[in-house]
Every structure is written in structure tokens, then in C-alpha cells.
Amino acid sequence: MAELVGPPDGWWARRIGEPRTVVLSTTGPGGRAHAAAVWYLWRDGEVQIVTGRGSQKHRNIERTGQAAVTWLDDWRYLTAAGPVTAEPLTREDRYALWAHYRGPEVAAKETASDAHEEMVLLRLSPARWWGQW
């Protein structure tokens, strides 16, 4: 395992901007780990994730204010951990996530409803990076 000082460069820097599924890890009730596969956006130096308001991920983050995400690629991995906040999700942020993964046409269909009002945007600001590559 290697630890980085700041965000990765080179190969990993390109990979974290791609539409990939990552593992979001939070601390659940009683100190147990809670891990879930999620879509994300890498924007302005933070990992942005959409989840349901009141979901286990959301409740864990509201309680602890900390999370980690892990990118996997065969035997390689990269993890970023740090403080995370939750805020109301806008239709525009939901559209950006869908467009990143499925393109603008599908994104327009998926975000036409007001479903974003039942979701939150998680913003993870990586304070620590580590992995194996």
C-alpha cells in the first residue's frame, strides 16, 4: 500500500474522472462498516454522490461526517477518505450524474420528474489518499 500527498496524477487521475462504479464506505450504527456500490462524479476536487434522503448512507454521514470511496481496477485500488457533507440535490446535479454514466438523452428522461427532491448530494472532500498500483 502506498499513501499519496494529495490527489493522484497520471493513470489514476484519468481513471477517477471516468464513469465507473466505486465503493462508498461509511460507519454504520454500532461502529459497523457499511459499504455500497455507487455512481459518482469527480468535480472540483471532490467526490459527489447521489443517494436517497434518509438512506443508511445518508444517516451514517449525518452522524459521523466521514466517508471513504474506493476505485477498483483488477488488482489495483485507490481509496480517498475525508469529511463529507449532505445537501439538497438539484435537478441539475442529478442530470450531470446521469449524463456522465448514460448520456444526455437518458439523463433527460431520468431527471424529468421531481425525484431529486427525495435525494441528497454527498460531497466528499478527500483528506487522505492511498492504494496499490
Automatic annotation (TrEMBL):
Q: Which UniProt keywords apply?
A: Oxidoreductase
A GO molecular function assigned to this protein is:
coenzyme F420 binding
Provide an example Pfam family for this protein.
PNPOx_N
- Top-rank taxon, per record: Bacteria
Q: Under the cellular component aspect of Gene Ontology, which terms does the record hold?
A: cytosol
Gene3D superfamilies noted in UniProt: Electron Transport, Fmn-binding Protein, Chain A
Q: List, for all copies, the residue spans of the domain called Pyridoxamine 5'-phosphate oxidase N-terminal.
A: 16-131
Name of the protein described by the UniProt record: PPOX class probable F420-dependent enzyme
